[in-house]
């Protein structure tokens, strides 16, 4: 199975047909478009629920785990978002597919720790949704390392990345990060804080780049400093990207995806050249 998304995501691997996907949507047009697209791209047969009651029945009828739900905010019998709350309360990873978007709506959605939200306001909406589904189902192939001396910061980033279905390791110092990288050569992305007591983010990046190139490991630096030149210094040290705290969720996930997409493309090209 091969897939190339709108943003440049590439996936070539096993079929995704074994995943149980639930669509909570009352529009026949969108349910038809989504189910058709996911079937032709990933061979996934989705379960369609057009009301809150049908969601409850789908959950109760089978003990098989629901891998992912795609849900509108409002459904018949749940005009105030009860269906979405139900899915979230059951800890079912959920992508919201909605035509309603305001800052208040966006903030409320993210506070529920959904996987993603896709707007129905453009002709590419279903393809963007398909890409979001593919990312969630395949993100477990990526191992991400968080490096930060703050336990709170490590926990927040770890929770955020696990919400997107990544495999995550965490290190409380630069030296611990070096040890984890040595023990886990499958780590493809490192997100490191700049200000750490033993080895700062710049020095950590320099040491890694002495033996590991960007074709093997992508590095994103982060900092809450107001010094805008930190990004330039970090990139010159061998980093691939830099993000200032506090993060905007959508930007953070986009930067992570872009770096991992680049890594995938490099590895795909290398395999073709050596084949």
Automatic annotation (TrEMBL):
Gene3D superfamilies according to UniProt: 3.40.50.2300
Positions of the Response regulatory domain: 20-135, 143-260
Keyword Coiled coil tagged: no
Pfam families per UniProt: Response_reg
Keyword line: Phosphoprotein, Transcription, Transcription regulation
Cited InterPro entries: Bact_response_regulator, CheY-like_superfamily, Sig_transdc_resp-reg_receiver
Superkingdom, natural source: Bacteria
Sites of 4-aspartylphosphate modification: 193
PANTHER family, A to Z: RESPONSE REGULATORY DOMAIN-CONTAINING PROTEIN (PTHR44591:SF3), STRESS RESPONSE REGULATOR PROTEIN 1 (PTHR44591)
Protein name, as recorded: Two-component system response regulator
Source species of the chain: Shinella yambaruensis
